[in-house]
TrEMBL record:
Binding-site residues, ATP: G19, T20, S21, L22, D23, G24, V25, D26
UniProt cross-references to SUPFAM superfamilies, sorted A to Z: Actin-like ATPase domain
Name of this protein: Anhydro-N-acetylmuramic acid kinase
Enzyme Commission number(s) from the entry: 2.7.1.170
Superkingdom as given in the UniProt entry: Bacteria
Taxon lineage: Bacteria, Pseudomonadati, Pseudomonadota, Alphaproteobacteria, Rhodobacterales
Substrates-to-products reaction catalysed: 1,6-anhydro-N-acetyl-beta-muramate + ATP + H2O = N-acetyl-D-muramate 6-phosphate + ADP + H(+)
InterPro entries in alphabetical order: Anhydro_N_Ac-Mur_kinase, ATPase_NBD
Name of the coding gene: anmK
Keywords: ATP-binding, Carbohydrate metabolism, Kinase, Nucleotide-binding, Transferase
Organism annotation: Sulfitobacter undariae
Length: 367
């Protein structure tokens, strides 16, 4: 029996996201008609084992071949395992794992076969969210902004507000909630701010065998090397007018800029680079947001949060302050986007990915 997706009314969707920091898979449920968020449901998380992480990471930056296939197999197995517990939803939004992203060259690659997941789970799966946007000239990222627009309306924001996601890479969405439809010009401006946690994570791994700088404990004792910070800010990426997007390792050479520094100074400097990228991003916003709502793992780093508070001209708060879940926002975003795709509604536009006309990306696979 095939399971059709209702064309109108509120449906229940689960979103599954595996981000650039490779910690694990997030799954979160929400109810929506594709425009308004009705309510949020349960969520779950599945860690990757060190072995799985190694196999996935070996596929980073590659477009095809055995390493990519091996990474895809790990992604599919991990998602099947966690999504077994979510077979009661109307549909699933499956982001997959980005292995490579070069929208103006080879394209964008998220691995994991959504059609196979739909067959195995017996639930319709929406996947391959980014390809159509890239094929039509967009950056293919970030895609969470249409969901951020719905969140701004859900929390009753009455002035422009920014959502700042600090994962491996940073991305910001500026939202004008007075414009009801996200694809209308002026409602959204979104782009990647620069590297966020990825360079610090790489440094911690390389020097101390740690996955990340927990609570900024290493950076806290260090001094920011202003010369390295200036070199970083001289990168043409920051002056480029958005929309613009990044691959996880686009700034990998930043770790080289701090090679001669002590662990503490190097961590402080890389953390400051993340904050400085965000400060640069604010200059591209049409008007300053009333506040910046921080989501993603970086909001747990008090050293980073303090640097942001000092360098931005508006309040910077973890997104929990407005009642949203900063660990699950991306998974919720792909649940929301799945419903839009299934209903033929756009998921990106000029203000978010630079695509000329609004696009509804994604493939719908019905079991
Ligand atoms: N307590 C903490 N102290 C410092 N940093 C932290 C803490 N908790 C999480 N992080 C950072 O946040 C990262 C995970 O962030 P998140 O889960 O948002 O990334 P992601 O979703 O995989 O990435 P992306 O949004 O780029 O796809 C960790 O790798 C770590 O660098
Ligand atoms: C190509 C890709 O997977 N990009 C991710 C990555 O992680 C953060 C940033 O870079 C953002 O552009 C995007 O993810 C979020 C979920 C997005 O599309 O909005």
């Amino acid at each position: 029996m095939t399971r059709a997706i209702a064309k109108t009314g509120v449906v229940t969707a689960a979103g599954a996201m595996s981000g650039t920091s490779l910690d694990g898979v997030d799954v979160a449920v929400l109810r929506t008609d594709g425009h308004d968020i009705t309510d949020f449901g349960r969520s779950a998380y599945r860690d990757y084992t060190p072995e799985e992480r190694k196999v996935i990471a070996a596929g980073f930056g590659l477009w095809s071949g055995e390493a990519v296939e091996a990474a895809a197999a790990v992604i599919e197995a991990a998602h099947l395992e966690i999504l077994e517990g979510f077979k009661d939803v109307d549909l699933i939004g499956f982001h997959g794992q980005t292995l490579a992203h070069a929208p103006r060259q080879q394209g964008t690659l998220q691995v994991g076969n959504g059609a196979m997941l739909a067959d195995e789970l017996g639930v319709p799966v929406v996947w391959d969210f980014r390809s159509a946007d890239v094929q039509l000239g967009g950056e293919g990222a970030p895609l969470a902004p249409f969901f951020h627009h719905a969140c701004a309306r859900y929390i009753g924001a009455d002035a422009p507000v920014a959502f700042l996601n600090l994962g491996g890479v940073g991305n910001i969405t500026w939202v004008d909630p007075s414009i009801d439809q996200p694809q209308v010009e002026g409602a959204l401006l979104a782009f990647d701010t620069g590297p966020a946690n990825a360079p610090v994570n790489d440094l911690m791994q390389e020097r101390l065998g740690l996955a990340y700088d927990k609570d900024g404990a290493v950076a806290r004792g260090g001094t920011v090397e202003t010369g390295a910070l200036e070199l970083f800010l001289a990168e043409p990426y920051f002056a480029r007018v958005p929309p613009k997007s990044l691959d996880r390792n686009d700034f990998a050479e930043m770790v080289a800029l701090v090679r001669e520094l002590s662990n503490a100074d190097a961590a402080a400097t890389l953390t400051a680079m993340c904050a400085a990228g965000v400060a640069e991003a604010m200059q591209h916003c049409p008007i300053p947001p009333s506040r910046v709502l921080v989501t993603g793992g970086g909001r747990r780093n008090p050293v980073l949060m303090q640097m942001l508070e000092v360098s931005l001209d508006c309040p910077v708060v973890p997104i929990e302050e407005v009642g949203l879940d900063g660990d699950m926002l991306e998974a919720q975003a792909f649940a929301y986007l799945a419903v839009r795709v299934a209903r033929g509604m756009p998921t990106s536009c000029a203000g978010t990915t630079g695509v000329r006309a609004a696009v509804g990306g994604g493939t719908v696979s019905v079991p």
